[in-house]
């Protein structure tokens, strides 16, 4: 049986088909079934061998029926065969015999039939399962070919990602070509991963920055692994001063490196940053693979390529001034220094060199400008904007107050913004409205100090 050209989308006659035809004497359409099929059609060739021409012709018709049954995933049956053998057509799929060729050698007759089929009618006849398999096979082949190109261009980790995706796609699909099987690609992936080295270079622990390098060991020299996704995982501090885990994916450049500088301004002042190959989703897709020993081995191999960078930022703020811009319920600046004095005293109690600065202006940049022209010499200015959201009295006489705030830290010599929080919130109770508001404002100040302390102090 010769399955030639079914579902091939090109209509151009290849040069190789012409050469083969000239050499063998067989028609060009035998090597390129799409020849002369027309825009909306596809072609195929049936082949039959017998002692007589009629018997060979009937076998060629049977070959066409068998090919179509495989391609569509359904048995076309005797009715289609009778129509084809008598009329040279199968009307339900728009098939007609376009050409034929007979060759005789040593008493053996071979008949070749060139069939032309309407694409749309053939597609309607094709079962959903056959279409699914065809689409899956095309996706797998595309991923593997792309992966092969990645290896050639020094993008080995992208190739690993593609091959692992194919390993997952092939689970439970017994008809997949053996060269695309789980076991075959597993060996390829392991070989690639074993050749890759991840390293921390140019570390600066006091600045929490470093360079990550990925190389692949070659026969004689190592080469850069470019376009590799590396996941950086680290601890940051939220608006309440609580540490949480954060992460970001970095991409190696053409030299196989990238410079790590946290994009999260709330990176904890000291800690560890883990850099790992970003293949977690590819691994997760292998959870249903029959050979879980290999999956676990692969997971361990990927984990072994991780590196850890320990840091402790040595930068300290030096002397610091605190300026709290307090707003009442209507949004007006109160001019009060109570909370500014409160947070300055709290910082001094911790051994920090801090002093309050009276903020009467509404805009924090105006406050910074005023401070820089006040003759004060502190290194940094901590500006906290605090606003009263609401205050409510209960039937028991207790007052509840809620407030919101924003924390900004400036370097005075350059007016550079070193840190800015998200909006923070607090609430408190008091016997009077004033007491409740002061308590809510002080809670915001506590949160502000916790944030700054976690990141800088």
3D architecture notes:
The protein is of the alpha+beta class. It folds into four domains: 15-125, Dodecin subunit-like (2-Layer Sandwich); 129-194, no CATH class; 196-277 and 299-312, Immunoglobulin-like, CATH 2.60.40; 320-455, 3-Layer(aba) Sandwich (Rossmann fold). Helices cover 36% and strands 31% of the residues. The protein has 13 helices and 18 strands. It has helices at residues 15-24, 28-31, 53-72, 77-87, 119-125, 128-152, 156-169, 182-194, 280-284, 292-303, 338-349, 364-372, 433-455; strands spanning 41-50, 89-90, 95-105, 108-118, 196-204, 209-217, 222-224, 229-237, 243-251, 257-261, 270-277, 307-312, 320-327, 354-356, 380-393, 399-411, 416-420, 424-430. The strands form four sheets. Strands 13, 14, 15, 16, 17 and 18 form a six-stranded mixed beta sheet that branches. Strands 1-4-3-2 form a four-stranded antiparallel beta sheet. Helix 7 packs antiparallel against helix 8 (182-194) and helix 11 packs across helix 13. The radius of gyration is 37 Å and the shape is elongated. It starts with 14 loop residues before the first helix and ends with a helix. Residues 1-11 have low confidence and may be disordered.
């Amino acid at each position: 049986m010769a399955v030639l050209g079914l579902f091939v989308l090109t209509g151009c006659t290849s040069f190789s088909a012409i050469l083969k035809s000239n050499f063998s004497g067989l028609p060009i359409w035998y090597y390129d079934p799409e020849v002369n099929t027309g825009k909306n059609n596809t072609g195929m060739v049936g082949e039959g061998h017998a002692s007589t021409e009629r018997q060979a012709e009937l076998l060629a018709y049977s070959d066409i029926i068998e090919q179509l049954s495989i391609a569509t995933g359904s048995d076309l049956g005797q009715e289609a065969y009778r129509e084809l053998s008598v009329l040279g057509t199968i009307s339900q799929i728009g098939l007609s015999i376009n050409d034929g060729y007979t060759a005789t050698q040593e008493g053996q007759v071979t008949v070749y039939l060139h069939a032309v089929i309407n694409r749309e009618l053939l597609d309607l006849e094709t079962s959903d399962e056959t279409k699914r398999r065809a689409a899956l096979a095309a996706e797998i082949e595309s991923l593997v070919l792309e992966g092969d190109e990645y290896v050639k261009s020094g993008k080995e980790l992208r190739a690993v990602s593609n091959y692992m995706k194919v390993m997952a796609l092939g689970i439970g699909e017994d008809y997949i070509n053996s060269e695309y099987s789980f076991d075959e690609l597993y060996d390829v992936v392991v070989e690639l991963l074993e050749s890759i080295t991840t390293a921390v270079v140019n570390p600066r622990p006091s600045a929490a920055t470093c360079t990550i390098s990925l190389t692949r060991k070659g026969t004689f020299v190592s080469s850069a692994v470019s376009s590799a996704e590396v996941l950086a995982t680290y601890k940051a501090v939220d608006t309440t001063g609580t540490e949480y885990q954060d992460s970001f994916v970095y991409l190696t450049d053409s030299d196989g490196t990238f410079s790590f500088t946290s994009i999260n301004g709330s990176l904890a002042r000291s800690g560890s940053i883990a850099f790992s190959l970003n293949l977690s989703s590819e691994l997760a897709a292998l959870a249903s693979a029959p050979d879980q020993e290999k999956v676990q081995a692969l997971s361990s191999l990927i984990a072994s390529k991780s590196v850890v960078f320990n840091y402790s930022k040595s930068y300290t703020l030096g002397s610091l001034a605190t300026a709290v811009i307090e707003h009442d319920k209507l949004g007006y600046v109160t001019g009060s220094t109570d909370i500014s004095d409160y947070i300055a005293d709290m910082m001094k109690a911790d051994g920090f060199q801090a002093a309050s600065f009276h903020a009467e202006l509404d805009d924090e940049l105006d406050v910074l400008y005023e401070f820089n022209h006040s003759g004060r010499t502190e290194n940094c200015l901590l500006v906290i904007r605090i606003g009263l959201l609401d205050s409510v009295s209960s039937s028991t006489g207790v007052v509840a107050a809620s407030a919101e705030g924003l924390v900004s830290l400036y370097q005075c010599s350059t007016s550079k913004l070193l840190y800015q929080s998200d909006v923070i919130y607090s609430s408190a109770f008091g016997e009077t409205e004033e007491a409740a508001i002061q308590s809510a404002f002080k809670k915001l100040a506590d949160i502000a100090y916790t944030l700054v302390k976690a990141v800088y102090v």
